[in-house]
Structure formats: C-alpha cells, structure tokens
Amino acid sequence: MSSLEKIARSVPAGASVFFRERPYAAVEKQALVRDVVGLANALVDGSRYLILGVRDQGPDQREFVGISDDEISEARKIYQSLILAYVEPDLALDLDIVELDGNAVAIFSLNRCDSPPYLLKQNLSNSMREGSGWILHEELPTRLRRPDMQTLFQKTLSGSAHQPKIEVGFVGKDLADELVLDALDLAQMPSKMAGDKFRKLMEAKQVARDVGARTLTHIQRLIHVREFGAAQPYENASDTSLKRRMTSTEEEHYWADDYYEYETRTHKVNLDLTNHGEVALRDGQLTLEFPRFDGFGVSEYLRTSPNDEEGIPTEYPSVSAGEKKIRIHTNVCAVPGGVTVPAFTEPLRIWAREPAKGRTLPVDFRLIGSGLSEPVTGTLRIRIR
Predict the structure, then answer these.
(1) FRET pair for 196, CA 20 to 30 Å: which of 19, 267, 315, 333?
(2) Statement: residue 314 has pLDDT above 80
(3) Residues 151 and 23 in one domain
(4) Residue 342 contacts by C-beta under 8 Å, 6 or more apart in sequence?
C-alpha cells in the first residue's frame, strides 16, 4: 500500500487533509481557489492533500466513490493553471490517481507550502478580492484574520523551528500505555474436534456391544448423525479404521489448526500515533520490542483460512522472533500535525496462553522519522489475565 493510499484510507480530515466527493465544476473555481489556499495556509508543516472522489464520514465510514476519466482530464488542465493565475506566492499542485476499492481517486499534493501567507493576487469575484486569504483550521476554510496573518508571518520568518510532537499508545478513546489481554485456550483445535468425533464413535460401538449386538448399528448411526450431521453418509467402519482415522486427524487438519492457533485465537493489536505539534512526521519507522517467554508470542505472518480464496493482506509488519526478544518493525505513513493515525495497516496478531497468565510485560518502542531531532522512545505494558 502506497503512502498516498494510507493517507486516503486512514488519516482524518483536518488542517492538512481535505476530502471532497465530487470534482470542482467549471462554475466552482472560487471554491477550488479558497480550499487550496486554505490548505496552503494551514498551521501545519509538511505536505497537505486535497482528495477528490471520497464520501467522508470518518476513516471508519469512508467511501471511495471515485471520479471519471473526463473529470480527471479536466482537473489536469484547469486546476494548476487556475491556482497559478490567482494565488501568490506560487503553489504547485502534484496530481496522483490512486485506485481505491475499484474507483479512481484524485489526490492533489501541496508539497511545499513554506512561504505563507498565500493570498489572491487579483480579484476573483466581488467577494474574493485581491489580498484575500483563507486558512484551514479544522475541516472548513475560513477567512484569514489578523492573528492568523501574524502567526503565518512569524512562521515564515522563523523558518518553522518546531518539530513533530508524537505520542504513542494503544488504540482507544485516549491513548493508553497499558493493554489488558485475556489468555486464550485452544480447546476447539480442529484436529482435536475431529479426533473427538471418531473417539465417540468408538465408544458408542463398545457401549452397543455391552448391551447387545442387535443395537450396535442403530447406536452407531445415531452417534454418527449427532457428530457428523445427516448430510454425511453413514459408514460402518471397523475399530481399526476408526483408530487410524483418529490418529491421522492432526496431519489432515494441519493448516486448519495453524489458522486457529495463530489467527483465530489471537488478539488483533494496533497502536495509534498522535501528532500534537504543527510539523508533520514523514518517512517514519517504528520498532517495538517484546520479551519472549512461554505462553506469549506474535504471529510472524498472516494466515489465510483454508476455505478463504481471497488471499491475505500484504501489509503486515515485519516480525523477528529471537531467543529472548520479539522485534516488530514497520514503516509509518505521514502523520500530519494535529491528527492521529494507526501505526500498522494490518494489526499485530498477539497470542497469549495459560502459562502467561498473571504476567505483565514491557513493550519498548522507538520511532524515527523526518522532522524529528531525536527518536521518540518509551515503554508500554501488556498485562495477561
């Protein structure tokens, strides 16, 4: 998944990301200029994004409706020339087309907005006069006020000496530094469940022998229907055949057991990265380190269900299990100022079993990236109950 796709899917609308469902029509050039200028003047550092073809109700309710080829062609022809004609200093709009959920989404990137304030250099309409400007504070652009102008001039003159202020924590309403996980048993392991069915058939045969041979087949049939269902034909198997089939269930259900143990019976765990500063974090890399001990681990790769034909996601973090430590590494998408993004595109699969009950383990993290003068480090905790 590209960094632009991650932004379109995961980053909330805010001062550095502006979503719009439809392209700007020919009669909406005022709205286009206002929105682009508002993004350029936003009090964040780093790139800003105008994303078209998205029906946005938050990252969890975001629909990628897309735009047509004709609308893309029109945007290429008009948007940049309109901005150059009406805005100063000059602003460059870089257009990328990203396919999301089968639809083409247009992402305009403003990668260099280091000379604010950006203002109109000529009249655009009676209400949008030369010298006018806008700023995006939340999700809608508003007219620049005197305090905004002062802040933007100071930012330009100081060279924006700020840097990202990143907080790392477990996903939740508020970033948490402790996560409680239940120890999950493996009582429903597919091979065990299959073996139990054959074992019950053998027990039924023995019971039938004890009460009389005439009831043997009848009891076996009843147990067969209960364990295997009426759809599977009854087979009068010998004791030897049942024992052989019972002992072969582990091999026959190897992949189902693997999926059950390392996917079904795991906790899906993610972290959030919140940028409390004005400067965007770019080109981030996050490393986690867990202690390794009996009854606890992290799946090293994603499993696919034996009945699943869709395949598995490819954006799982890198997991390396050493003798004493488990290390996780992932690249982090851009974290604009004032927003929260998930650390992992695909959450970690963490498993905890009975031997780990009652233990609390430290999770050390280290985050580096463009804009940080030094790594962001700390320790989170996971408690197993």
Answers:
(1) 267
(2) no
(3) yes
(4) 10, 171, 270, 271, 272, 273
Range with lowest mean pLDDT among 100-114, 191-205, 327-341: 191-205
How distant, in Å, are the alpha carbons of 298, 332, 333 from that of 318? 11, 12, 15
The distance of Cα 98 from the centroid of its chain, to the nearest Å, equals 17
Considering the domain architecture, whether residues 19 and 146 belong to the same structural domain is answered as yes
Residue 176 belongs to domain with CATH number: 2.60.40.10
8 and 57 housed in the same domain: yes
If phi > 0 it is left, if psi is from -120 to 50 it is alpha, else beta; for residue 247 that is alpha
Give tens-digit pLDDT for 266-306.
Answer: 999 999 999 988 788 888 889 999 999 999 999 999 988 87
In order, the DSSP letters of 23-77 are: PPPGGGHHHHHHHHHHHHTSS--S-EEEEESEEES-GGGEEE----HHHHHHHHH
Question: Do 114 and 38 belong together in one domain?
Answer: yes
Q: Which residues pair with 80 in a beta bridge?
A: none
| 34: its two tokens | 């206002």
257 C-beta neighbours (distance < 10 Å), count: 19
Whether residues 372 and 283 fall in one domain: yes
What pLDDT is stored for residue 334 in this prediction? 87
Residue 153 pLDDT more than 90?
A: no
